[in-house]
Amino acid sequence: MRTIAILGRPNVGKSTLFNRLVGKKLALVDDTPGVTRDRKEGFQHYGGRRLRFIDTAGLEEAAPTTLAGRMTASSEAAIREADIAIFVVDARAGLTPTDRGFAEWLRRASIPVLLVANKAEGKGGATAALEAYELGLGEPIPVSAEHGEGVTHLIGVILDTL
Ligand code: GDP
Ligand code: MG
After folding, report:
1. Interface TM-score (ipTM) > 0.85
2. I need a surface site. Which of 32, 73, 79, 146 has the fewest CB within 10 A?
3. Does residue 68 or residue 81 have the better pLDDT?
């Protein structure tokens, strides 16, 4: 079975995407950054394969001052277990220094990283997602986890990458 880890800074919509991919309300979604305290995992069949998804706590519990400090044990452990990482950024908020630092770390990851620009719903969403090209992680995949837009395409990319 293949494992997909969902990573990124707080509040970008990791848990919303996880729930969308797994099809159940397993992860707690909240407006308060850092609400996913523990990692959650869930399973779903796509393309005839059973996939495991890991929703990480993200970076919220770490000291914000150093790059190393921003990488929580949760993110590192998830990546060690995963075959693919999904790195989520917020297309509405734009890139932050934390996103850039995290991307720098992920560019050295030993597994494929899919860059997802979430909150890209509606007019202008796909255009807003283009900023994420700067991160050097390939073509950003625009999605709206909340509205379900782009998620089928993302699943296709996951299956093609596995
Ligand atoms: P996490 O901290 O990365 O796990 O983020 P959450 O999944 O908890 O979501 C953080 C906030 O972003 C919540 O208020 C969600 O409702 C909101 N959100 C998640 N996905 C989307 C989306 O596709 N579009 C918009 N506009 N908001 C979203
Ligand atoms: Mg969360």
Report:
1. yes
2. 32
3. 81
Domains in the chain, CATH or no CATH each: 2-161 (3.40.50.300)
Secondary structure string (H, E, C) spanning the chain: CEEEEEECCCCCCHHHHHHHHHCCCCCCCCCCCCCCCCCEEEEEEECCEEEEEEECCCCCCCCCCCHHHHCCHHHHHHHHHCCEEEEEEECCCCCCHHHHHHHHHHCCCCCCEEEEEECCCCCCHHHHHHHHHHHCCCCCEECECCCCECHHHHHHHHHHHC
pTM, rounded to two decimals? 0.89
Return d(Cα 116, Cα 86) in angstroms, integer.
7
Highest mean pLDDT: which range of 32-36, 100-104, 117-121, 123-127: 117-121
> Of the bound ligands, which one is closest to the alpha carbon of residue 27?
2
Which listed ligand is nearest to 60 at the C-alpha? 1
Q: How many angstroms is it from 25 CA to the middle of ligand 1?
A: 13
